[in-house]
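Thread: Newbie trying to understand structure tokens

Hi all, I'm a second-year student working on a class project, and my supervisor (Dr. K.) asked me to get a predicted structure for one chain before our next meeting. I've only ever worked with sequences, so writing a 3D structure as a token string is new to me. If someone could post the tokens and maybe explain what I'm looking at, I'd be very grateful. Here's the chain:
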Amino acid sequence: MSTPTRERLSQARVLVVGDAMLDRYWFGAVDRISPEAPVPVVRVNREEERLGGAANVALNVKTLGAQATLMTVVGDDEPARKLRSLLERQGVAALLGSDPQLYTIVKLRVIGRSQQLIRIDFENQPDHEVLAAMLGDYERALPQHDAVLFSDYGKGGLTHIPRMIELARAPPASRC
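---
Reply by user tm_fold:
Sure, no problem. This is what the structure looks like when written as tokens:
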């Protein structure tokens, strides 16, 4: 096996399939304890949004120099639009299935005095019919990629993974 070069890596096409998330961070100052409960009051002064889960994995692939495509299912909501925008800005191609009943996964971290105080998760399970319909998209995307990377965070997006692995392992002529 030859040593990977920057040039060979730049030609590699990786399909990342899995559970994408939007990571949100609220940073702020903590100057007092709440009179309602013994918890710190965070006065938010900065917010960040980052690619999370499989979207972060796709970004890491891209950062290493390869071409990355993310395949995932998202909701029809503001976090999905933000995720799409962040992927586009980072140069990660996206094949996003849409499930109107799904909340695009958001992990909100509240940070005060450089300490994470709480994480709030917004999520539910995707519709298995939407995931089954995406198998056709997956089959069409396979020939344009050199490798498939499955990124499973246990959120239900990879319920058809045995079939996806079977298709990825099959010779190109027999994938239909």
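A couple of things are worth pointing out once you decode it. The helical segments are 6-11, 54-63, 78-90, 128-141, 161-169. The radius of gyration is 19 Å. Feel free to ask follow-ups in this thread.
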